[in-house]
Amino acid sequence: MAKNIQAIRGMNDYLPKDTALWQRIEGTLKKVLDGYGYSEIRLPIVEQTPLFKRAIGEVTDVVEKEMYTFDDRNGDSLTLRPEGTAGCVRAGIEHGLLYNQEQRLWYIGPMFRYERPQKGRYRQFHQLGAEVFGLHGPDIDAELILLTARWWKALGIAEHVKLELNSIGSLEARANYRNALVGFLEQHVDVLDEDCKRRMYRNPLRVLDSKNPEVQALLNDAPRLSEYLDEASRAHFTGLCELLAQAGIPYTINECLVRGLDYYNRTVFEWVTTSLGAQGTVCAGGRYDSLVEQLGGRAVPAVGFAMGLERLVLLVQALNPDFTAPPTIDVYLISSGAGAQRAAMQLAERVRDVLPQLKLMTNYGGGNFKKQITRADKWGACVALILGENEVAAQQVVVKDLRSGEQETLAQSETAARLAQMLS
Ligand code: ATP
Ligand code: MG
């Protein structure tokens, strides 16, 4: 017998028992975005490889070891998108969306990274991201954070995510700091692990990210990025902190928060949780005022974030049972006999014409009355419509309230009106 072909490691199927929850969560997220006037942008899943190398940075984990890159049949190097910002900026430049105007955009879809699969970390995962172009003040940074905070409330997880915030300053401030940091690290190479030594010259700020406790202890004595901030970045950060305080959003300043992607400047933030084990960052973002220029456009200020939907779904599943109820229908249509089956299909369509919101499922594949009632219960229906040969002959239908057990016989033409009454 042939061996079964299985899905690729780290790339999940999303089964009907879970998709209802996904849809409910996505619906909630989109409603909030809509309420802030953000518009959806849909982007290709595959882009030219140099786009990601230039945007994300050659010496980041993502570009060094996580991208799915392959040659197209004509020899072009293509990459499955590991994140959404690069493609969004590319599209913005290509379609002239970025100059002399503002854009508040969002996207949703699969991203691909070759990582070790584990809970909350997959090779195909989904992000919902937002990107704003053309606004440079801290007010828009604050708006993005307020929008995400509103999401947590709507999803019932607000108590379980915490905001961490930092400013990484201008490119120049960071370069000065980098020199100071490397100078410090050089004096303490003995404490550094291999990973940190590798990062020390290529991308020294990532050493701040190290999970190694000895390195973290050493960093207590290291020069601080906040001491190197340029005046404008400092004012921007103070402005943001004030706006968040005014809005009642608690935050912690985490001076080691630097983010893995190279394009950030000034504001960086993460929403983190302790409810998911090691994969604690649910949503992460920041400002990237030089990326548009870096990708060939004219300088345009920009700020955005990306949220990992798998981690969000895990959180909602763990913390908000209200959201995870299985999908149900309103009405189950039962019939017995071939003639009644055909009549059932016609009746169902007539009811749908009048009640487009109604969730109506028609029984197919036969089964005796008892079996069909069991199916109705399994789907949580509160009403059954029943058609036998006699009802069909008389153009009638039996309407059974599955909660009370009461039933009545009606003319088929009255079905929709009666259902509307019963379900209102
Ligand atoms: P991490 O430190 O967890 O690797 P990251 O800094 O690489 O995250 P970003 O590139 O900022 O993550 O992506 C934003 C969000 O996307 C993350 O906070 C996380 O919720 C989600 N995410 C990133 N990589 C994965 C993955 N492999 N599987 C599932 N979700 C992911
Ligand atoms: Mg990562």
Automatic annotation (TrEMBL):
The keyword Cytoplasm applies. It holds the Pfam family HGTP_anticodon. Its main location: cytoplasm. Residues 1-326 form the Aminoacyl-transfer RNA synthetases class-II family profile domain. L-histidine binds at E83, G84, T85, R113, Q127, E131, R259, Y263, Y264. The keyword Isomerase does not apply. InterPro entries: aa-tRNA-synth_II, aa-tRNA-synth_II/BPL/LPL, Anticodon-bd, Anticodon-bd_dom_sf, His-tRNA-ligase, HisRS-like_core, HisRS/HisZ, HisRS_anticodon. One of its GO terms (biological process) is histidyl-tRNA aminoacylation. Gene3D superfamilies: Anticodon-binding domain, Bira Bifunctional Protein, Domain 2. Its EC number is 6.1.1.21. It is found in: Cytoplasm. One of its GO terms (cellular component) is cytoplasm. It catalyses: tRNA(His) + L-histidine + ATP = L-histidyl-tRNA(His) + AMP + diphosphate + H(+). GO terms for molecular function: ATP binding; histidine-tRNA ligase activity. Keywords: Aminoacyl-tRNA synthetase, ATP-binding, Cytoplasm, Ligase, Nucleotide-binding, Protein biosynthesis. NCBIfam families: hisS (TIGR00442). Homodimer. Belongs to the class-II aminoacyl-tRNA synthetase family. This is Histidine--tRNA ligase. It comes from Serratia symbiotica SCt-VLC. The lineage of its organism: Bacteria, Pseudomonadati, Pseudomonadota, Gammaproteobacteria, Enterobacterales.
